[in-house]
């Protein structure tokens, strides 16, 4: 069950990270509220998940999911730049997440 928590915590991390951008410095109240709620939920799920796997493994997977998803959706929704180098680095993040999980 810990890995399910980590997965959903990672998805919520994507939500609050993008919410930080969309809130325009917390000047948009509804988006700010969404950002704070998703951040709290993400941290709560991560705290529940960390009861079982090693803390470093859980944190690495959580932050990797968040980083990967935030970069990818930043490209889609905020027209962040795309380059072969950026895409290659995203693949390395995925490889790192898989590697940390396999070797834990």
Automatic annotation (TrEMBL):
* The organism's place on the tree of life at top rank: Bacteria
UniProt GO molecular function: transmembrane transporter activity
**What Gene3D superfamilies does the database record attribute to this sequence?**
1.10.3730.20
* Keywords recorded for this protein, A-Z: Cell membrane, Membrane, Transmembrane, Transmembrane helix, Transport
Keyword Membrane found: yes
Q: Where in the cell is it found?
A: Cell membrane
Mode of membrane association: Multi-pass membrane protein
Question: One GO biological process from the UniProt record?
Answer: xenobiotic detoxification by transmembrane export across the plasma membrane
The family assignment reads: Belongs to the drug/metabolite transporter (DMT) superfamily. Small multidrug resistance (SMR) (TC 2.A.7.1) family. Gdx/SugE subfamily.
PANTHER family in the record: GUANIDINIUM EXPORTER, SMR FAMILY PROTON-DEPENDENT DRUG EFFLUX TRANSPORTER SUGE
Under what name is this protein listed? Guanidinium exporter
Q: Which organism is it from?
A: Alcanivorax sediminis
């Amino acid at each position: 069950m810990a890995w399910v928590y980590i997965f959903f915590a990672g998805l919520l991390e994507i939500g609050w990270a993008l919410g930080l951008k969309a809130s325009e410095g917390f000047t948009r109240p509804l988006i700010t509220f969404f950002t704070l709620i998703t951040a709290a939920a993400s941290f709560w799920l991560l705290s529940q998940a960390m009861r079982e796997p090693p803390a470093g493994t859980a944190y690495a997977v959580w932050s990797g999911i968040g980083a990967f998803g935030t970069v990818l959706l930043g490209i889609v929704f905020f027209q962040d730049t795309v380059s072969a180098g950026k895409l290659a680095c995203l693949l390395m993040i995925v490889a790192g997440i898989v590697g940390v999980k396999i070797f834990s």
